[in-house]
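Action item from last week, closing it out:
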Amino acid sequence: MDLSKQAIGRAGEFQAAAIFERHGVVTTHVDIHGVDLWCETPSGRRVTVQVKAAQRPQPNYGRHVTPRYHFNVRQKDAHPADVYCFVALDLSLLRLFSAGELPAAATKKMGQNMFTETDMATDIKRYLY
């Protein structure tokens, strides 16, 4: 079943929050421009998170044969969130990047091989501990 863009985004926010909570990160869902979650790390640090979600990988036309997830990161201003979270809904996995690691306006494309339990756990420890 294809979901609306709004439903995909909302599902990604709640899936990310559930994953973070399982890793000991307390989350609060917020509705603020550019920020979806406020997170309190196990060390007591507070981090703002912008969640981007994709329902499934999309076929690529051109030089890339392998389907990839497409995430729109289009902020005219500087990134308001500390961390960006990219959720692959079909895999129930996510990846994290700091705002400084992303260009101001881009479509982030990621292959399925970038979403693993190990990489997800490493990212959570790196950005949310």
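Closing note: The mean pLDDT is 91.
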